[in-house]
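User: Here's a structure from my thesis project, written as structure tokens. My advisor, Dr. K., wants to see whether a designed sequence matches the one we expressed. Can you design one independently, without my sequence as a hint?
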């Protein structure tokens, strides 16, 4: 079974993304912060991680680096309310970023990416 991890502090976006992922036949773990990870999660190789980058106490680029370091994954999608071009460019300068989506979020585009996998 293909697996997706969704990390979103915003509960509404979390639930929307979780539903989208499940409707596309992925197993989904949806959490609100990295603190909610279990040991098993850290040993799972996720097909996708769909995450925000705005978390209290950590800079956006630091958060992405932490996710990339701690979690095994094939694709990393950023879905965030932070739409600043500067941050987007900095995120895309990092290796291993599959996509960056700022509000308003285009769910059709996100769905197309996970379906293409």
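Assistant: Designed independently from the structure alone:
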């Amino acid at each position: 079974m293909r697996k997706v991890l969704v990390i979103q502090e915003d509960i509404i976006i979390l639930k929307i993304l979780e539903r989208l992922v499940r409707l596309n036949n992925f197993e989904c773990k949806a959490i609100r912060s990295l603190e909610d990870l279990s040991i098993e999660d850290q040993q799972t190789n996720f097909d996708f991680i769909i995450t925000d980058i705005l978390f209290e106490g950590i800079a956006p680029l630091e958060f992405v680096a932490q996710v990339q370091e701690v979690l095994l994954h094939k694709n990393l999608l950023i879905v965030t309310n932070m739409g600043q071009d500067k941050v987007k460019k900095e995120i895309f300068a990092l290796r291993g970023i599959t996509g960056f989506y700022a509000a308003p979020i285009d769910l059709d585009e996100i769905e197309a990416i996970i379906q293409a996998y």
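When you compare it with your expressed construct, this may help: Residues 11-23 form the longest helix (13 residues).
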